Model the fold of this input.
Amino acid sequence: RPHELLCDYLGPQTNPYTGEQYELLPEHMDELRALAVPVAAPERLWILQQQGDEVLDYRKALDEYRFARLSLECGGNHAFVAFERYPAQIIRFLGL
Done:
């Protein structure tokens, strides 16, 4: 739900990498909300998250995706520390 995550940043902004100035407007939140897609096949969804994620609240994921496969780890961060442990499992999950 990026429209909820970004609502605190409405107004003038500066891209920290390019220095580009822009304004985040309420219309942008409406556009992000409109992009939401309902989960049609929950058995095909696997959430990998770490409790130390500084961007996404793992408690919201537990609630929002309670019907899906969920791997929640202590610690970590938004980059998902030690992700390299999962590719083989992901490949099996995807049936590739």
Notes: The mean pLDDT is 93.
